[in-house]
Write a structure and sequence with these properties.
Radius of gyration: 17 Å
Number of strands: 8
Largest sheet: 3 strands, mixed
Strand content: 15-25%
Distance between the termini: 32 Å
Structural class: alpha/beta
Oligomer: single chain
């Protein structure tokens, strides 16, 4: 599947579920606390901080972003790029963790067709609620707790922040036979 199709399926999935599709904002944000737009939620920061009333209860976007908050990770991992698009769905008091996890699961398994037996979830190490919610979708041994560097999201030194969850797809040893699976390392399995 190519990038245009991934974007199209993402946007249509959330639009069908009552999200207002919002275009990407400028890479130069209207926010003096950050240099560049680093995440999809930057344009929604005033809503999350209660500074403005959101014009809709749910939003989805494909936001152009430029990594500055953890630029030291660029090139060290395959997940950290300098310039990228962040696909995001946002709720302004309409749904929270349970709804977000359900949407994420349905998106990747139904809309993208990923095999559930290859999926893993990571949660912030102290987020018992998210870990328990993931048990509705995954066995406990595929729910991995990670620390601040991996599963605590922030948009910089100021602004909204908090624990986060991620879904990972295990491509298996066939794809990368020369290295041990990250998932096995995370869960303590050799």
């Amino acid at each position: 599947m190519e990038g245009a199709e991934i974007r199209r399926r993402f946007v249509s999935f959330f639009e069908e579920r009552g999200h207002t599709v919002v275009p990407s904002s400028s890479l130069i944000p209207n926010d003096p606390s950050i240099l560049l737009t680093t995440a999809g939620m930057v344009q929604f920061k005033p809503y999350f901080l209660g500074q403005q009333e959101p014009p809709y209860p749910r939003a989805a976007s494909v936001q152009k972003a430029f990594r500055t908050t953890d630029v030291e990770n660029v090139g060290r991992t395959i997940r950290h790029m300098t310039f990228f698009e962040m696909l995001g769905n946002f709720s302004f008091g309409d749904y929270f963790k349970e709804g977000a996890l359900r949407y994420a699961w349905d998106l990747v398994t139904e809309r993208y067709g990923l095999e559930p037996d290859r999926l893993w979830a990571t949660v912030y190490e102290k987020d018992d609620e998210a870990a328990e919610l993931w048990r509705s979708y995954l066995p406990a041994d595929r729910i991995v707790r990670r620390g601040m560097d991996d599963n605590f999201w922030s948009m910089g030194d100021t602004g909204p922040c908090g624990p986060c969850s991620e879904i990972h797809y295990d491509r298996g040893e066939t794809f990368e036979p020369s290295r041990q699976s990250d998932f096995s390392r995370w869960s303590g399995k050799a």
